[in-house]
Amino acid sequence: MLIQQTREQLTELRLNGMAAALDEQRANAVLQELSFDERFGMCVQAEVNERENRKFQRLLKAARLKVQASPEAVDYSAHRGLDRAVFSSLVTCDWVRNNLSTIITGPTGVGKTWIGCALGFQAVRKGYSVAYYRVSRLLEDIEKAHGDGSLGKLRAKLAKTNLIILDDWGLSPMSTRGRAELLELLDDHMEYGSILITSQLPIEQWHDYIGDATIADAILDRLVNRAHHIKLRGESMRKRKPQGREGEQS
């Protein structure tokens, strides 16, 4: 009776990991032979694991990554110039901790989005908040927020996100408002967070893409000078990988 009452109290206190561990111990005769300290430690560790998993699931859902990707599934056999040592250093997420950025450029189909999402997934594993956006969608959201008065809320959300992934940079034209708001985003964010950009455009063409020379100078100064750069090359991986194959898909 006392055990059942303890079980119910753990549930009421939302200590679900400890409650599950207690159930496991009661059902396992081997575990019951352990000392009280060992069994209690196992319960506490189960609660820690449960909370860490809930946090991971919450952050992953909020990230809304375009593809399910992980660093372990990256294909190094593709001849596209992906340096294993450089990528492994990025997987540590020290660049996110130090509020630096990463730029991934290359032709279509070489896996830029996939690699970007793999790094985003790794950041979630490390406990960082992540937000994925196609640049076209972000610009649309900015325009919409101007119209309905929610721009301040959008800015605040992005400013407090540890890592923002901007996918397909350079595919959508920038309006005057879009350029200005992108600069505001970088000003608000880069002191406290990181940016990851994927783009078909070489960095040398970004100035012309942004359009306004003054704003372009300011944006590139904030991005390029504080960023790691992965420059991919080669033909589309879609030509060499069958659909449904496990591992990296572009």
What does this structure look like?
With 250 residues, the protein is of the alpha/beta class. The chain has two domains: 2-60, no CATH class; 64-239, P-loop containing nucleotide triphosphate hydrolases (Rossmann fold). The protein contains twelve helices and five strands. α10 links the parallel β3 (163-169) and β4 (194-199). The protein is elongated and about 75 Å long.
Keywords:
12 helices; 250 residues; five-stranded parallel sheet; 2 domains; 11% strand; alpha/beta; elongated; 5 strands
Specify the structural class.
alpha/beta
Shape call: elongated
CATH second-level architecture of the largest domain: 3-Layer(aba) Sandwich
CATH homologous superfamily name of the largest domain? P-loop containing nucleotide triphosphate hydrolases
Rg calculated over all Cα atoms: 23 Å
The amount of beta strand, in percent, is 5-15%
Number of helices: 12
Secondary structure elements and their pairing?
Layout: H1 2-12, H2 16-27, H3 29-32, H4 36-63, H5 84-91, H6 94-97, E1 101-105, H7 112-125, E2 130-134, H8 135-148, H9 151-159, E3 163-169, H10 176-189, E4 194-199, H11 206-210, H12 213-223, E5 227-231
Parallel strand pairs: 1-4, 1-5, 2-3, 3-4
Helix pairs in contact: 1-2, 2-4, 4-7, 10-12
Short recap of the structure:
The protein is of the alpha/beta class and 250 residues long.
